[in-house]
Write a structure and sequence with these properties.
By secondary structure, the protein is mainly β. It starts with a helix and ends in a 12-residue tail after the last strand. Helix content is 15%, strand content 45%. It has one domain: lipopolysaccharide transport protein A fold, CATH 2.60.450.10. Strands 1, 2, 3, 4, 5, 6, 7, 8, 9 and 10 form a ten-stranded antiparallel beta sheet that branches.
Length: 197
């Protein structure tokens, strides 16, 4: 019982340290955008990034449910991984538990899954996506988003009911949902006026 209490204190300290470090870096990082030269020209390419980078989370409130391996962040949540940023009203994080009968805790506390709810906004450079909810499977690097999803890249926009993005491959798929259709609006490239003689 005493050892379990120490584990809970250690986990809370680890999460608090992560939140403190992320809190100091979040304002500058939230405005960070990649140079235009590194942005992909096609949809979803801007979301390609290193999904093995550390995840930083900042929120107004953190609730840890040790027995369920959950950390629940609420109130103006900002999560970041490299240049990828996610904001939401609520973020539920599932983390790895210590395996019974082992003396190792190498993977204990590792984030496995994240679920964001309410006013979800995802950005990476000039590419953004918004919807009602999102789920991130950290191991596979796949994000699923739903609820009137809108993906934008510059002046271009694609909307549908659901979106799946593979962060490792920089690929994605938008579906219209039951009876719905995917809507796309693409702005033509600006043309320079021809020189007069």
């Amino acid at each position: 019982m005493f050892a379990r209490g120490l584990q809970l204190i250690a986990l809370a300290a680890l999460v608090a340290a992560t939140v403190a470090v992320a809190g100091a870096a979040a304002p500058a990082a939230a405005q960070d955008t990649a140079p235009a030269a590194t942005q992909s020209k096609g949809p979803f390419g801007g979301f390609k990034h290193d999904s093995s980078a550390p995840i930083e989370i900042v929120a107004d409130v953190l609730e840890v449910r040790q027995a369920e391996n959950l950390a629940i962040f609420s109130g103006e949540v900002v999560a970041g991984q490299g240049t990828l940023r996610l904001t939401a009203d609520l973020l539920t994080v599932t983390y790895a538990a210590e395996q019974p009968g082992t003396n190792t805790s190498a993977d204990t506390g590792t984030i496995q899954h994240m679920r964001a709810d309410g006013n979800v906004f995802l950005s990476n450079g000039a590419e953004t996506a918004q919807g009602a909810w999102a789920e991130y499977d950290v191991a596979s690097g796949v994000i699923r988003m739903g609820g009137n999803v809108v993906l934008t890249q510059g002046d271009n926009a694609i909307s549908g009911e659901s979106l799946v993005i593979d962060l490792n491959a920089g690929t994605g798929r938008i579906e219209g949902g039951a009876g719905g259709r995917v809507k796309s609006v693409f702005a033509p490239a600006a043309q320079t006026p021809a020189a007069k003689n």
